[in-house]
């Protein structure tokens, strides 16, 4: 059976709701043609995955890859992309509206932003001096100023942002996109996390596949480590390993004949197949010796600040993975130099906001701007979507004297790339930047929009588990058409 035929059958299974629990792929292949042997051959030779393709009602694909720049800890919107002049006018005064319970409740008075906002680019999009390099890309950004979250604590908010649910056990957005579209890269899985910054609060389960087949969970890759992926180096000569893999493939076929079509076994076999291909591919992916000095400088890899260098490597590697067809790449922020123990939430400044946010912006500003410029000059920008978001924002009033507490009631995220109307804003918060008051947006709307740009109808991408059809956009999501070109 050809890989095209396999994909078509898998697509029909997905569109009709008959995903793995009802009609596993291996049962279909075994009953229809040559069974696991053809599947193994296809997996080893074809570029692309055999997972579900979008159904006939899907929108046309505008992009093929997503880069998720996750700002873990919570960036302050009123200090970055949502200017609020009233904070300057009323600095030091008590809040004039009721204050909801915060994380620590050490609430102070209204606090002006330490950074000046300026209108940037031809569009005049306001961006603060906190992000001078990203501000130079203002005409490429669609800023959503009315993002909301039901969670006020890091771990729950991280799970909610990644999966649409505030509890562990649900698939991450990258896992959903790997499941729905597979990968255009034959040597790498569809979902890769560049884990140089460590896992955010909540742990690596944030990158999990939940009830989807385990083959769709994230592969963690640390570009700064001697071994970017654990156990990536073969412990025996390649020719010996290849002979052993042929024996293992025969044993797998025999075991499958005895045990049937257990999806857990299917996922394990596919993971082994992918791991074998990665052993040859990953060293080349992370070897940047073929990149010019000018390109490395564009990403800040020549910076005297170690964190800028490491985040720049993540951004450059993200571009290299996009070139090779990886579907979903997530980047991680490194801890601040002044607080190296703050792993997982480095944007979380309950005190010392100006110092902490400045350090974090120095880390990510040049690399992200460099990524946008590099994608554009290589003709990749129109087929790539960049998503920039934290799990929540920060309060317009101070915590103590110079920090800000968590604010899930109204904050900013932005997207840029193919199909996006750059230089625009959507939604609004009140004049203090506290609550979303115009076009409130949920994470379900955000991921529904991302899927739409990937050519997937978010209402059709479902997986039956526990008697319910789950989806990344849950029952609430809708596409934000106003920010699409």
What can you see in these coordinates?
It is built from 13 helices and 18 strands. The protein is of the alpha/beta class and 485 residues long. It has a single domain, classed as Alkaline Phosphatase, subunit A. An eight-stranded mixed sheet has the order 7-6-8-1-9-13-5-14, with helices on both faces. It has a two-stranded antiparallel sheet with strand order 2-11. Strands 3-4 form a two-stranded antiparallel ribbon. A hairpin with a 6-residue loop joins strand 15 (428-429) and strand 16 (436-438). The longest helix has 25 residues, at 353-377. The radius of gyration is 23 Å and the shape is globular.
Secondary structure blueprint with pairings:
Elements: H1 3-15, H2 25-32, H3 36-45, E1 65-70, H4 85-89, E2 107-110, E3 117-120, E4 125-128, H5 132-135, E5 141-147, H6 154-163, H7 173-181, E6 191-194, E7 219-221, H8 238-259, H9 263-286, H10 293-298, H11 306-323, E8 328-331, H12 353-377, E9 384-389, E10 393-394, E11 397-399, E12 406-407, E13 411-417, E14 424-426, E15 428-429, E16 436-438, H13 443-453, E17 463-465, E18 468-470
Parallel strand pairs: 1-8, 1-9, 5-14, 6-7, 6-8
Antiparallel strand pairs: 2-11, 3-4, 5-13, 9-13, 10-12, 15-16, 17-18
Helix pairs in contact: 11-12
